[in-house]
Design goal:
Radius of gyration: 16 Å
Order of helices and strands: EEHEHHEEEHEHEHEH
Number of strands: 9
Number of helices: 7
Strand content: 15-25%
Shape: globular
Structural class: alpha/beta
Largest sheet: 7 strands, mixed
């Protein structure tokens, strides 16, 4: 895998922001010529919890292995303090929903097709993923939710309820994958749930059947 640390200027926030990005690359199973034929890769936008950054996923989970096994790109944006709202005079929610995906699609070979775009998160990031999918239907095929928490629990429950009420009715709303709540600091649980999430997504996995 190619792990890329990308820093760029956010026009919305007026400062430098960053994202960690994993892109499939040649290894013992995949030749360079084969990967070049793919063009763009399915992509998972993975959101961190409070007081975290995108690099937390690299440090604390096997996300690189999951990405390689599924031949999938992973975009892990840093959103200061896990702030998935516009508040305190800072437009972090606008930044996430209007800039992050657009930047990733320009800078990296990631798909723009709804069928190949997924969003997920843990802790406050799970709330962010649910909210992103609910407020912008048509962008993501699936929203993954690992141990969701939010300071306004009513907002979180309303967001989850919206998915359940529209299950099987609103085809633009992402499918919802939920994983039982556990303490956010339980890294083993988070990693295991992330692995289950990748296995549940409709991804190409071993594209060339070499193993």
């Amino acid at each position: 895998m190619a792990w890329i640390q990308c820093n760029y200027h956010s026009d919305i926030l007026g400062k430098t922001m960053g994202m960690e990005v994993i892109i499939p690359e040649p290894d013992i199973f995949y030749k360079r010529e084969e990967l070049l034929k793919v063009g763009t890769f399915p992509v998972v936008y993975l959101l961190h919890g409070r007081n975290g950054t995108g690099i937390d996923w690299i440090r604390n989970t096997s996300v690189e292995r999951y990405a390689m096994e599924n031949q999938t790109a992973v975009v892990m944006p840093s959103v200061d303090n896990g702030c998935y709202e516009n508040m305190g005079g800072s437009a972090y929610w606008t930044y996430l929903t209007e800039e992050v995906k657009a930047k990733a699609e320009v800078y990296f070979p990631v798909s723009k097709r709804r069928e190949e775009c997924f969003v997920a998160g843990a802790g406050e990031g799970a709330y962010g993923a649910l909210k992103w999918g609910a407020e912008f239907p048509g962008r993501f095929h699936t929203a993954g939710c690992i141990s969701p928490v939010w300071e306004d629990e009513q907002k979180l429950r309303e967001c989850q309820r919206k998915y359940r009420e529209h299950e099987g009715q609103d085809r633009k709303l992402p499918e919802l994958l939920e994983y039982a709540e556990a303490p956010q600091e339980d890294g083993e649980y988070c990693d295991r749930s992330l692995g289950e999430l990748f296995r549940a997504l409709p991804l190409p996995r071993n594209l060339y059947k070499n193993w």
